Amino acid sequence: MENKPLLEVKNTGIQFGGLKAVQNLNMVLNQGELVGLIGPNGAGKTTSFNLLTGVYVPTEGDILFNGERVNGLPPFKVTRKGISRTFQNIRLFNDLSVLENVKVAYHSLAKHNILSSVFRLPAHFKGEQEMEEKSIEFLKIFSLDKYKDELAKNLPYGQQRRLEIARALAAGPKLLLLDEPAAGMNPQETKDLMDLIAFIRDKFDLTILLIEHDMNLVMGVCERIYVLDHGQLLAEGSPEEIRNHPKVIEAYLGEEVHDVNA
Ligand SMILES: Nc1ncnc2c1ncn2[C@@H]1O[C@H](COP(=O)(O)OP(=O)(O)OP(=O)(O)O)[C@@H](O)[C@H]1O
User: Fold this and answer.
1) How far is the CA of 56 from the centre of ligand 1 (A)?
2) Which part of the chain is the ABC transporter domain (predicted)?
3) Where in the chain is the domain with CATH 3.40.50.300?
4) Which fold has domain 1-82+172-261?
5) Which of 18, 41, 187, 239 is the most buried (most CB within 10 A)?
6) Contact (CB, 8 A) for 194 and 219
């Protein structure tokens, strides 16, 4: 696998009034890597995702994706460039079916155009059928196909999280950003999710950046970890290096890191 940077974050940050929520953030993600982003509450993790996905425009620095500057682009354009995400607070279309939730992601990329849909031309039906088949394939990967006609809001919490990942994948990303994918899951669901994240990375040739509070998940699945504290990068390294990093232990991970080693 070629090891060229897919994402380069250069001295990036954002200030809200007097608060520097993120500052001097430097990050490089190589094609195919699975990387963790950790840090205590309010460290700036979700804000970093919002910077990477066009929700916020950085007040400093640049974000390069595939060598191209993406800061300043609106979120839908960033998605089309190949960056998809999930949210800390699940954002599904609650009153649409599980299947429709995935199809929505396809609609934004669909080849058949609005005219063929309005006039219900053959291209419309072919496009719809193709979307449905592909959406069901994604649902199968996440073991959600049997719930395809259920309303999204009726799924148990852990499965809603999986559906959100399925939908993000359906947009065909090169970079997938997962914001606390295991939040609210029990240990077995978390373990299954860990395996699934590694599986989809390989199957879809993805690069993944994940925010997580569950240290076992981060240490078990990620090859590299970035640590944020008070909006700044505190450390970067392998799980082993992070686990033993004095600043990380001292600052705020002590107990969890100890648990991981236990
Ligand atoms: N739109 C905004 N306006 C003002 N302040 C903001 C805004 N978004 C985030 N912040 C502040 O920026 C800081 C970083 O928040 P952020 O949500 O990125 O942290 P986090 O690391 O994701 O925390 P958590 O683990 O609790 O989700 C916090 O102090 C937060 O209150």
Assistant:
1) 12
2) 7-255
3) 1-82+172-261
4) Rossmann fold (3.40.50)
5) 239
6) no
Dump pLDDT digits (tens) for 124-183. Answer: 656 778 888 889 999 999 999 999 999 999 999 889 999 999 999 998 999 999 999 988
The ipTM assigned to this model is 0.94
Ligand 1 centre distance from Cα of residue 20 (Å)? 10
Q: Give the span between the Cα atoms of 236 and 171, in whole angstroms.
A: 29
Q: What is the Cα–Cα distance from 166 to 139, expressed in whole angstroms?
A: 7
Cβ of 93 closer than 6 Å to ligand 1, yes or no, is no
Q: What is the pLDDT of residues 203-230, one digit of tens each?
A: 999 999 999 887 777 888 999 999 999 9
For residue 153, give every residue at least 6 positions away whose Cβ sits within 8 Å of its Cβ, in sequence order, or none.
Answer: 92, 94, 95
CA 42 / ligand 1 centre spacing (Å): 5
Strand-pair category, 175-179 with 83-85? parallel
Burial of 145 (0-12, 13-18, 19+ CB in 10 A): middle
Q: Which ligand 1 atom sits closest to the C-alpha of 47?
A: 18
Return d(Cα 63, Cα 11) in angstroms, integer: 9
Q: Is the CB of 23 under 6 A from ligand 1?
A: no
| Rounded CA separation 100/92 (Å) | 10
